[in-house]
User: What shape does this take?
Amino acid sequence: MTKHRDSQSPGDGGRNHFLLGSATRRYLVWTICLMLAVVMGRAVAVAAAEQERSAPVAADLVEDGQAIDLASDRYLELFKELRLKYGFSPEELLRLFSGVSIQKKVLELMDRQTEAMPYYKYYPLFIKHAVIAEGRSLLQEHKVLLDEIEKEIGVDREIVVAIWGIESKFGNHKGAYSMFRTLNTMFDAYPRRRDFYRQQLIEYLLLCKENSVDPLAITGSYGAAFGQTQFIPSSFRQYAVDFDHDGKRDVWASVPDILASIANYLHSFGWIKGAPITSELGRALKDQRLVDAYAKGRTALLPWSEVKQLQQIAMPSFPDYTKVSIVGLELEDGGTRYVAGYPNFQAITKWNNSNRYAMAVTELAAKFKEE
Ligand SMILES: [Ca+2]
Assistant: This one.
């Protein structure tokens, strides 16, 4: 019935038009214009949203295996810098770069939306029975080495081994993408991070030269992290150490170099051996100043003694100037578990800019110690 009533023929409408007064007609015309404007506006908005959804991402603009244009301005500039500033010969550059091509998969993985995963879903990816068991056994196996690292570099052994486990499953997972091809793909075809990867490409070529490694032989993650430490090239050059004194910083196969390099990184960001990493604050923040600091994120640090007073809770003692971050971890029941992040926690976030990562490292290390 309804359908029948709505489907008046145009002829009926036209006849009515001639029967209406001029004021009513003007009103009708305005109403129709307004309706048309609303409908068209909505159509434009929908079209814009569609376009945004289907806007080409970096991976859509290339073919897999597509040759990189080495005569482009950006490559000519790069070669010039590598020659003049870093002493690469034209022959060396020709050998390395000729035939380099795009790896589309790297761009696809970069473009994939990485949604923030709540902590209760995140930590089980890393804190597993098998990982805990292997970590404990490696702590025993490398006891003498870890004694030396604690003594010389001053970073707690469980944390070093926890990062080793999370980064590369203790060396079992180092990434299968050619580092050289990945870095070139990102530099050539990923405009959003072009400058960053240009610098990483240069650092990579330098680290290979410094360590007598063939740049074409190394594999890593799609984000260009390599070795058992999963350092990006600039981190390797700044923080990797030669702990077995063979003249090479080997984060691929030398366990002393791998573990000491992890420790050295944390030490460089203020690790305090034996000091607490976090302190539990409960499921609710009791003062607006704590809520504000939490909302601002990791950079909004508060003196630990102030947090203790505001939250009315026992906390590990530190010198008064020590500041903590307020960290919230999502619980499965929808609530939040709050912890204070001491300087050691902040040092782990310098390794990976994520509270969830730093907390997973902290809790995996604690598991190693449990009886
Ligand atoms: Ca070495």
User: Anything to note?
Assistant: The CA atoms of residues 280 and 339 lie 4 Å apart. The beta strands are 177-178, 219-220, 278-282, 302-303, 323-330, 336-341.
